[in-house]
Design brief:
Keywords: NAD. The protein is an alpha/beta fold and 331 residues long. It has helices at residues 14-25, 56-63, 79-82, 86-106, 148-166, 192-201, 224-237, 253-264, 288-294, 302-320, and strands at residues 5-9, 29-34, 47-50, 68-71, 111-117, 169-175, 178-179, 208-212, 218-220, 222-223, 242-245, 250-252, 269-273. A seven-stranded parallel sheet has the order 3-2-1-4-5-6-11, sandwiched between helices. The termini are far apart.
Length: 331
């Protein structure tokens, strides 16, 4: 693979920041763009621009002089945020996506990768914790997550139409719950693994931890290192239809709490708050097509990937406030 000039939008965010590092290590020239700088360490991008991609002019600046666009920029967050911010998410992301697509075509970009989400999958297929893994073809008949999932599905179709009508190369990646170090762990936009790591780190050994919902809802979780490798492989694959990118290692939220508690060396009592949003009852990734197209799939087990994730979050918390019990590694 030749070295290329690439743009990563959303490079100030969790996945985008890791993707910049991955692409730089592969020898590419990388421009990172976001409305904010990375929060926890400096970007390794050759050029980092602070731009608001809701503005069409900003998108043209961002896309100038690059061959590949990895479009990760989005207004998003955890379940509490995406269930309470439908209008803002849809309005912001529609502007970002349409302007970025137009700018990429106008500026002569060769390949455009769109980061979609498992939130596009029909809610009627996710009513039980022991959910059947979701295949790419399950997206229709549609019933996506309100707001965030709907706008992601709409942009997927735009990618399809632009490829069919104009011959513009697109890729669509459906992320399934990404976690790892250097990600948001508080403030309301964090995802479940980071939130649970934070809560466990801040809990006394023998104390209590609050869980949103009854704890029986299930998900699969993918480490960010697998995620960025998968993104790169999908861009290089030549495959222009949506692909799942996740693991098929299904676990309940209660099980996730138990894993993190073991890593921390703590025994905690779970207190379930049924008034808080918990999303669909079950969601898992069917990786059959990913294996067929790439001959590869994510391989980092959750119990393995959570160890550095927990210790990084605990270290961040320790740097800002004393923790009740210093975290220790599990045997």
């Amino acid at each position: 693979m030749d070295n290329r000039r690439v743009l990563v939008t959303g490079a100030g965010g969790f996945i985008g920041h890791h993707l910049v590092k991955f692409l730089k290590a592969k020898g590419h020239w990388v421009r990172g763009v976001d409305i904010k700088s990375p929060e926890y360490e400096a970007s390794e991008a050759d050029e980092f621009q602070l731009l608001d991609l809701r503005d069409a002019r900003a998108c043209r600046i961002a896309a100038s002089g690059v061959q590949d666009v990895y479009h990760l920029a989005a207004d998003m967050g955890g379940i509490g945020y995406i269930t309470a911010s439908h209008a803002g998410i849809v309005l912001n992301n529609t502007k970002i996506n349409i302007h970025m697509m137009d700018a990429s075509r106008d500026q002569g970009v060769e390949r455009f990768l769109f980061s979609s989400s498992a939130c596009i999958y029909p809610q009627y297929l996710q009513l039980q914790p022991d959910v059947t893994p979701l295949k790419e073809d399950d997206a229709f008949p549609a019933d996506p997550e309100a707001g965030y999932g709907l706008e992601k599905l709409y942009m997927e179709k735009i990618c399809q139409y632009v490829t069919e009508d104009y011959g513009f190369e697109t890729r669509v990646v459906r992320f399934h719950n990404v976690y790892g170090p250097l990600g948001t762990y508080d403030g309301g936009r964090e995802k479940a693994p980071a939130a649970i790591c934070r809560k466990v780190a801040l809990s006394q050994d023998g104390g209590e931890i609050e869980i949103w919902g009854d704890g029986q809802q299930t998900r699969s979780f993918m480490h960010v290192d697998d995620c960025v490798e998968g993104i790169s492989r999908i861009m290089e694959s030549g495959y222009d239809k949506p692909l799942n990118l996740g693991t098929d290692e299904l676990i309940s939220v209660d099980g996730l709490v138990d894993l993190v508690s073991e890593i921390a060396g703590k025994r905690l009592t779970k207190r379930h708050d049924l008034s808080r949003p918990q999303g669909v009852r079950g969601r898992n990734s069917d990786n059959s097509r990913l294996r067929e197209i790439l001959g590869w799939e994510p391989s980092i087990l959750l119990a393995e990937g959570l160890v550095p994730t927990f210790h990084w979050i605990a270290g961040e918390l320790e740097a800002h406030q004393p923790l009740p019990i210093r975290a220790v590694a599990a045997e």
